[in-house]
Amino acid sequence: MVRRYYDLPSLSALAVFEAAARHSSFKLAAQELNVTPGAVSRQIKSVEMELGAPLFLRNGKGVVLTGAGEELFHVLASGFSRASEVIRSIKEGEASNIVAIACSDVFATMWLIPRMPDFWARHPRVFVDHVIWENARNYRRSDVELRVRYGLGSWADETAELLFDDWIYPVCSPDFARQHEGAGIADLVDLPLLSVEWVEPDWLGWDEILLRGGVRAGALRGRRFGKFSIALQAAMADQGLVIGWHRLVGPLIEQGALVRFTDLVIPAPGGYYLTRNSTRKLSDTAMVMRDWIREQARQVRETPCPGGGRPPA
Questions:
Q1: FRET label pair with 232: which of 66, 102, 225, 278, CA 20 to 30 Å apart?
Q2: Is the pTM value of this prediction over 0.70?
């Protein structure tokens, strides 16, 4: 048998693994690659057998990467991204005036898009491709040069710079607040709470919010949502309380669509970061976008804290 020069598994199988890891789903990978889930499973199994180590853990909700799987995924995603960059550069033959930036749906809706008219007015010849995903694995798409992420500032193969931090407090509709006038922090456990099942682990849920407010909660009443934007819509429709992230819900409070409920306010454990691939040089167009985001973030950092005072620089 002829040995492969780089001693790698089948490149087709590695491409299948990368898609499955990025989606955290064999089914979605199969849809992307136009094959059956069974074919994806067989390719993954062949790689695992060749490596002698499992790459995924199967559970009732789907699949999650093992430690070995995470390591292989980061290497492949970075390599495929770089290869795509070189191929695209060869095809175009010159620098592109398109920049792709990835962020969550709620950050795009509540923070980035409302500010974009200023960017377009200054840079009318720059075209921005907004890559909107809740699952941050999709931020590794090969054409994405910039990402805005919430977290603690450390992601594999990414260079991160803090844009701003945040504060958290309960919010609801004005009518809901009137209906429960006089309620305090201890009463929150008895009210309908709107929870969000975040993909990112650094977002806080009601259990931790209440604990930090000095309230021990048992089984909580309320509804669960897969997106923060939908939970906000439910709160504005008088359906309950949602955890408000000040940088995102501030405009809705100014408009009167939402109001703060009780005086509970805590600093968010993480912050919003602008990140890029550590192994990839930014294009001139991406640097234009980066500098504009830095300017917008600097203005945000100068706004007062919810509890009074000013945030740290």
A1: 102
A2: no
